[in-house]
Design a protein that fits this description.
Strands 1-2-4-3 form a four-stranded antiparallel β-sheet. The two termini are about 25 Å apart. With about 160 residues, the chain is of the alpha+beta class. The protein has five helices and four strands; from the N terminus they run ααββαβαβα. Helix 2 packs parallel to helix 5 (about 145-164). It is globular and about 45 Å long. The longest helix has 18 residues, at about 35-50.
Length: about 160
C-alpha cells in the first residue's frame, strides 16, 4: 500500500536465515545477562502500555494472557479506524520526535509483489491482516531504555492521540 515501509515489502519468496557465527558468539556472551534483559523489557512494556490506557479509545492496546510471561520485543499498537489520525500520521510524528517505529512486519502477505504470480489458497477475506497492514505498528522496549525514555514515548504518543 501507499506509504508502506519498504523494508517490509516482499518481492521474492524465500528463506530468512539471519544469524551469523559472529551474532551467535555475541549471543553466547550475552546469555548471562538474559534474565536482566527480560525483566527490563517487561518493565518497559508495562510502563508504556499502562501509560497509554487513556488512549484506548483511539488505539488498540495489546493484552497479555495471565498465564503468559513473554519476552517483549516491542509494544504493538493499532490505530482504531474511527481515530482522527492514521497510523502513518502517528508514526511520522513519532519519527520526527526521534522515536523509532516499525510496521508490524508484512501485514497481508498476499498483497506483496512476491505473491502476484504465486499459487496459493485464501480462505475468507483476510480482513484482519489488511487491518494490521494499514493500522498497526510497534515501538521498541529495548532494555537500555530508562524510565525517562519510556515516559517521553508515552507523552509523545499521547500528544498525538489526545490532541485531535
Amino acid at each position: 500500500p501507499s506509504g508502506y515501509d519498504h523494508k517490509y515489502v516482499y518481492s521474492h519468496i524465500g528463506y530468512n536465515f539471519k544469524i551469523t557465527d559472529l551474532q551467535a558468539a555475541i549471543g553466547c556472551a550475552q546469555i548471562d545477562k538474559l534474565d536482566g534483559f527480560l525483566e527490563t523489557r517487561r518493565h518497559n512494556w508495562l510502563r508504556l502500555r499502562n501509560g497509554l490506557v487513556n488512549c484506548a479509545d483511539r488505539l488498540i492496546l495489546p493484552e497479555t494472557p495471565h498465564s503468559a510471561e513473554p519476552s517483549y520485543f516491542g509494544l504493538v499498537l493499532s490505530v482504531r479506524p474511527e481515530a482522527p489520525f492514521t497510523r502513518n500520521d502517528l508514526t511520522a510524528h513519532l519519527e520526527a520526535a526521534k522515536i523509532e517505529t516499525r510496521n508490524l512486519f508484512c501485514g497481508n502477505l498476499v498483497r506483496h509483489p512476491a505473491y502476484e504470480k504465486a499459487q496459493y489458497r485464501v480462505v475468507g477475506e483476510l480482513t484482519n491482516t489488511d487491518f494490521i497492514m494499514h493500522n498497526t505498528f510497534f515501538v521498541g522496549v529495548y532494555p537500555g531504555l530508562r524510565d525517562e525514555h519510556v515516559d517521553y514515548m508515552i507523552e509523545t504518543i499521547r500528544g498525538v492521540a489526545q490532541s485531535r
